[in-house]
Please model this.
Amino acid sequence: MDEAKKLTKAEGTRLALRLFANYGKPYLRWFLLAMLCLLVASSFALAFPFFIGRLLDSAFKNRNAHELNQTLGFLVGVLGLQAVFSFGRAYLLNAIGERIVTDLRKDLYRHLIGQSVTFFANRRVGELTSRIASDATIIQGACTLSLAEALRHLMVSSGGIIVMFLTNTRLTLLMLGIVPFLVLSAAFFGRRIRGISTRIQDRLADATSVLDETFSGIRTVQSFAREEHEIGRYSQFVEAAQREALKRALARGLFNAFIVFVMFSGVVVLLWYSGHQVLEGRLSAGQLMAFMLYTMAVGTAVASFTELYGEFNQTLGASQRIVELFATRSEIADPPQAKSLVSIQGRVEFRNVVFSYAERPEIKVLDGVNILAQPGEVIALVGPSGAGKSTLISLIPRFYDIQAGTILVDGCDVREVKLTDLREHVGIVPQETLLFGGTIKDNIRYGRLAATQAEIEQAAQAANAHEFVTKFPHGYETVIGERGVKLSGGQRQRIAIARALLKNPKILILDEATSSLDSESEKLVQEALDTLMEGRTTFVIAHRLSTVRRANRILVLQDGTIVESGTHDELMELEGLYRKLYDLQFRDEAVLTELGTEG
Model:
């Protein structure tokens, strides 16, 4: 089963850092240029306290107006250049971050969309959406503002400490005495903040899943009057996220309070000691001011490191979840030397096929199934619920892999050919049609993206869809809403048939597309299906007597095995399971058909 691989904290951290490195590598030159801007801007920032000290000494110690004016000119120039290079640093790092996250989102989407049906059956869509949107946004913040701030503070603090040592070694050592307290507190609080941040993202992912399910099934929610129930479900997760967020706020608040207390206590002691240095003539007022400004700059940088450390831990949590998704490998994939399947005749064969779902390996859904469908043959599948009909047709396009036996298409094992090639030759029209939220034209063209307008209209005409489409004010450019909600059931089915016609597959799978339609829509859809089925090997899960009688052969499934096979008349004569199903499912329809004919 292709579930997301769970990583240890150490593995997650290592792979998250590798993730940053891999995605940052293409933008290395930009990054180096940003570092140059950062270095220059930080150097000018370090020069600022020096010129402030010179400014004060010029006024109060040297009492030199020319020197005062000259120092002011230098100071304005330093501030101007610092602004220019700060802009360059901020823009470049933000641009790099945007590109990294865009690349990450595209690659993650490409990776997820290639996962098997089993993967999506075991994951909530809202959770995956949250990973691509929310978690990637957190990483984006780390790649832009957080990274830039961390590097800037690193340069300012290290450069400031060097200058402070050159100015007064004793004062600097006194100031650095508080650093161990800051480091230990950062390690303690950072670990807690990281764990809490991970839990917050998990709860938000759960909330996003509820939103996705609710909005997608809004008609079901409203028809059962379950709005309050869904509000309660959503509130449960967002309130859980809120509780965790309050814990994080408490941890950050305590951390910041401790940092502020330690920092300001250090500044008070520093001022007291430096005051004595001034009184003893070892330090001028300007030097004292410069030293205090350097102290404030270093202190601000160290305090910011603690906040950035919390954000870094939050980013590692988000990165770890994305890395786990990247570490997931689909159980349905091309073999190392997959064969191409350019064109086929449509011959499909099942040889002693055995299949069980991964989560229920002890239950054989299909057990020793043998089928041979010749090109152009129509095979109807009937049987009680749970007999394995839907599973059987899902194996042809290889949505699942079998445990034993072989499925062949034109003599080629489906596990040995390219997935894309195989699925290009298989068309599916399900009972519940899924359309996308674009235009009618977009949905039909989904069958063949390079189709012209004339080919799209030709397919729509063959599917009995052209007439109702042209009645819309915008025709084929009509937007049909998410999942095609603006169309009726019969209209959606005909659009789906037009899409399949445009694809022009050799193998067709139908989960009886007319079973839930009214009589008028059924007639139009059935005519379209007749056109679609011409010359194609067709597997039909039959819910209608008309479909059963139209089939070249009927296969009766029970408990995962084929118990009867033949035409309608042949199976009726056997008086076996098919006859019982006919009496339960098809007899009333046959009587109505006869009455309609007599009338």
Residues 594-599 have pLDDT under 50 and may be disordered.
